[in-house]
Design a protein that fits this description.
- The chain is mainly alpha-helical.
- Helix content is about 55%, strand content about 0%.
- Helix 1 packs across helix 2.
- The protein is globular and about 35 Å long.
- The two termini are about 20 Å apart.
């Protein structure tokens, strides 16, 4: 499963919606109405699913779904290099 699919699945569980209905350009806070507590839960789910570490400070880098996917891809590539 691609990281994009895993991110969308984690978001869909948090939002209680279908992953296919989440646009990649959707803004996390304003369009998806995800608050900071919910995004932390999504980050924890992603850490578990992908065996990576996403610290809380990365939240400030996230604006939309695409930025979350990019962050996960970046962490996955760093983990493979280590």
């Amino acid at each position: 499963m691609k990281s994009k699919d895993i991110v969308l699945n984690c978001l869909s569980r948090a939002l209680k919606t279908d992953a296919d209905s989440i646009p990649l350009n959707a803004r996390l806070e304003t369009q998806l109405n995800i608050d900071s507590t919910e995004i932390i839960g999504v980050l924890v789910d992603l850490e578990k699913a992908l065996s990576i570490k996403l610290d809380d400070t990365c939240f400030s880098q996230l604006s939309d779904v695409s930025s979350l996917i990019a962050l996960v891809d970046n962490r996955l590539s760093q983990a493979q290099e280590a």
